[in-house]
Amino acid sequence: MATFVLVHGAWGGAHGFRHVRRMLRAGGHEVTTPCLTGIGERAHLASPLVNLSTHIRDVVNHILYEDLDQIVLVGFSYGGFVVTGALEHIAERVKHLVFLDAFVPDSGDTLVGLVRGDGRARIQLGEDWLVTGPVREYDNPAEAQWMGIRRTTHPGGCFTEPVYLAKPLEEFPFTRTYIKATRSPETDLGDSAFWRAARRAQASGAWRYFELPTNHMVANNMPGETTGLLELIAGTA
């Protein structure tokens, strides 16, 4: 059995992984889904001081205080920035690193920088420190309604602070996997950056690569298939 830490994306929360979390636990795995400060169930803690470092510390402290080791660390979407930044502190505890239709940043990258020319204006960065995100589509109308009422704004500092990485991802001893959602519209915010990350994984022997035929909301649209892939990556399927 494996230990999974699932890190959600922007404007979301740990609840976005509820289907996958339940399925993994039913398979006997240990699963935790930390919620990032200022969004999701922790939206009441939003402030102009919340940034990428805050979210990295959320995940790092969660792993350290729970004393989790040999983990499968999964970052979805913006969560790719968070799990990448967390490596500075907990890389030795990671057995498998998984990017689920996520940004794969290099040291010094920002989210705003990676989406420049890819709908940057739709992030609506400006004087207001709270950012409203794009509307996402779901395969199931009931899921869309359930997730929609729980969608929050997001502190803008998370998108402008650069991530730090001591060495390229390919030089770490854990395995790296990229899972691409293949049916997201080209106009989806971040999708061209996700495809660049996917091509990076496909071209490198240091990565494993998988695809799922759905849009960006992978864990909501295809929870069973997502769970199966994660178990395969962890070597427990």
Task: Describe the protein.
- The chain has 237 residues and is α/β, with parallel strands linked by helices.
- α2 packs across α3 (79-90).
- Strands 2-1-3-4-7-8 form a 6-stranded parallel beta sheet, with helices on both faces. A two-stranded antiparallel sheet has the order 5-6.
- It has 9 helices and 8 strands.
**End-to-end C-alpha gap:** 9 Å
Oligomer: single chain
**Beta-strand percentage?**
15-25%
Order of neighbouring strands in the sheet with most strands: 2-1-3-4-7-8
Overall CATH class: Alpha Beta
The CATH homologous superfamily: Alpha/Beta hydrolase fold, catalytic domain
CATH architecture grouping: 3-Layer(aba) Sandwich
Largest sheet: 6 strands, parallel
- Quote the average pLDDT: 94
Order of helices and strands: EHEHEHEHEHEHEHEHH
Global geometry: globular
How many domain units? Answer: 1
Query: What value does the Rg take, in angstroms?
Result: 16 Å
> How many alpha or pi helices?
9
Main structural class: alpha/beta
Question: What portion of residues is helical?
Answer: 25-40%
Per-chain topology:
Blueprint: E1 3-7, H1 18-26, E2 30-32, H2 52-65, E3 71-76, H3 79-90, E4 94-100, H4 111-114, E5 130-131, H5 141-148, E6 154-155, H6 157-160, E7 175-181, H7 191-202, E8 207-212, H8 218-221, H9 223-234
